[in-house]
Write a structure and sequence with these properties.
By secondary structure, this protein is an alpha+beta fold.
């Protein structure tokens, strides 16, 4: 529940249960979803082989001389995360399908939106499926895309309440707490049904290293061939589900426009307000250079990059590094390997937690089954880590068999959902006692957070630094099996949210992922240990910091708030 509050309001201070219920009584309305909604059925591109992307994928497969039908490239840097998506938009000839939990309305997504509109204008069919949780306040402007030519936008499991204010929207939805809690957490991006991107990353400045505040450290994977078509079939199941509502059935373009934030404090012509910046700041976007990229078919694309200068209160300025538009996908280190998709059924969102546990094998169930087969080593990255009793028993069994288990998760200071930390903290001491190696990400990072594991380069304090928050979800099993997806290892992912993941059997990709993660363990995270029955946080190597017996970098108020939450919030709600 508290994580829900943080996600919608942007505040880290969660509402307590009794105040939440009181506010629900005051603000709950009688709004309802429409009963009769036209949902024209559509499906993924039937024959992608005739597209430039399809031909490029076939050529890569032939060059690799492989019998495997799917190729993969890890996406660890924010530059590749952004440019790979832009490249696919520009290269698509027939279809683009996007499925996300959250899409922010800011500078980076504005560039993506313009590219999507250009693709639609040249005849590409664009389908966008969003969970409805984050489409309030300024992010409601994302819904304007529904009224563009050749673009369809549907909202999954919408909340029948006002979008003008994220805070009061969630308050007015508390009377239907079950609907509020169950969210579509999948992240899928597919071009021409032949090249896809999936993983932990949503869309927005904070996911692409463009925020002057907190940036998420994340991990995606580019996937091509048969596995992309599997992801498309999953998309179609959600797109054609009765819980998917076309935006036009819920609101008009005029209503969306009326919620547009008012621009203010523009100091110069052509300046664009950064809606994520602190009050009083101005961000400008300036073309700085032209780069030559290439689409997968080999044709040259000219693209501009931008530099964003942000003026902070007090007159200080900071510049956000530029993101180029496109890359040449042929230059990426593609690995062809056996793979399988794990995905939750859309019906999971319509069920209560007890029904899910009794009737469905979920993505998290599949992941736990794979983890239970580990023989030597298990490396886990999970932004939110609330094991629950079943997972604790599994960890105990793994340790009894001598399996090394390492877990990287957020520290209290780096966690964007402190209530989730409360759930994790319940199990932390027991995990360490059974021999699980626990690492918590250090929040203060020198410079910008540009890649997974960038914490390895951190040496300084917080002055002028970018704050990092772990958002990746990945597991490496016995150095040969890699799982990347949208799921966290918590009961929310198991029982409440729908999730998607790809399992890849590849020693090469597993080693690459491990090389990305391990420097973050050694130099970008605190190692949490037990000493004399008490927790101690070992400072990262080379950080110049000292070991501590209290949650590092977290204020006393934050620590007290988590202690207050912990006894009352059930694991599955965190």
């Amino acid at each position: 529940m508290q994580r829900v509050f943080k996600s919608l309001t942007g505040h880290t201070r969660p509402a307590t249960w009794h105040w939440s219920l009181l506010l629900a009584l005051l603000f709950s309305g009688c709004a309802a979803l429409p009963n009769e909604v036209a949902r024209p059925v559509s499906t993924a591109l039937a024959s992608p082989s005739g597209t430039a992307l399809g031909q490029a994928v076939a050529a890569r497969a032939r060059a690799a001389g492989t019998r495997n039908d799917s190729g993969f490239a890890l996406v660890s840097s924010v530059e590749l995360a952004f440019t790979s998506r832009m490249t696919l938009i520009k290269a698509a000839q027939k279809t683009l399908d996007l499925q996300y939990y959250a899409v922010h309305f800011d500078d980076s997504t504005e560039r993506l939106f313009e590219a999507l509109k250009e693709a639609a204008n040249r005849g590409v069919r664009v389908r966008i499926l969003l969970d409805d949780f984050n489409t309030a306040g300024k992010n409601a402007q994302v819904l304007k895309l529904a009224f563009e030519k050749n673009i369809e936008l549907r909202l999954f499991n919408p909340l029948p309440s006002s979008r003008a204010s994220p805070f009061f929207r969630i308050i007015s939805s508390l009377s239907d707490i079950d609907r509020l809690q169950r969210r579509m957490h999948n992240k899928i991006f597919v071009a021409d049904n032949v090249v896809a991107i999936t993983g932990g990353r949503n869309l927005g400045d904070t996911y692409f290293g463009q925020s002057e505040g907190t940036n998420f450290v994340d991990l995606d994977v580019l996937a091509e061939g048969r596995i992309a078509q599997d992801l498309s079939r999953s998309f179609d199941q959600y797109w054609n589900n009765p819980l998917a509502y076309p935006v036009q059935s819920l609101m008009t373009a005029k209503e969306i426009e009326a919620m547009k934030p008012k621009a203010s404090n523009v100091q110069q012509a052509g300046a664009a307000i950064d809606l994520d910046a602190p009050a009083g700041s101005v961000a400008t976007s300036t073309a700085t250079k032209v780069v030559n990229g290439g689409d997968p078919s080999g044709s040259s694309i000219n693209a501009t990059t931008t530099t964003r200068t942000v003026t902070l209160p007090g007159g200080l300025t900071t510049t956000i590094p530029a993101l180029p538009d496109v890359i040449d996908l042929r230059q990426l280190p593609w690995t062809w390997a056996p793979s399988v998709m794990l995905v939750d059924k859309p019906s999971k969102i319509a069920m209560d937690a007890d029904s899910v546990e009794e009737s469905q094998d979920t993505v998290v169930d599949g992941l736990l089954s794979l983890m239970s087969q580990a023989q030597k080593d298990l490396l886990i990255v999970s932004a939110y880590f609330v094991p629950g009793q079943q997972m604790m028993k599994q960890f105990a069994d793994l340790r009894q068999r001598g399996v090394r288990v390492r877990v990287l998760t957020n520290s209290l200071a780096s966690n964007d959902a402190p209530a989730a930390h409360a759930g994790y903290a319940r199990y932390r001491q027991a995990l360490i006692a059974m021999g699980i190696e626990i690492y918590e990400m250090r929040t203060e990072q020198a410079g910008s957070v540009s890649a997974f594991g960038s914490a390895a380069g951190s040496t300084g304090g917080s002055s002028g630094a970018s704050r990092a928050s772990l958002h990746a979800k990945a597991v490496v099993i016995d150095s040969k099996l890699l799982v990347i997806g949208s799921m966290n290892l918590d009961l929310r992912s198991k029982l409440q949210n729908s999730e998607v993941a790809i399992v890849i059997r590849s020693a090469k990709l597993s080693a690459e992922a491990t090389r990305l993660i391990e420097p973050g363990l050694a130099r970008g995270a605190y190692r949490v240990e037990l000493e004399g029955g008490q927790l101690v946080w070992r400072a990262p190597q080379g950080s110049g910091l000292k070991d501590t017996r209290t949650e590092p970098d977290a204020s006393l108020g934050l620590r007290l708030m988590v202690d207050l939450i912990a006894p009352f919030a059930p694991d599955e709600m965190l």
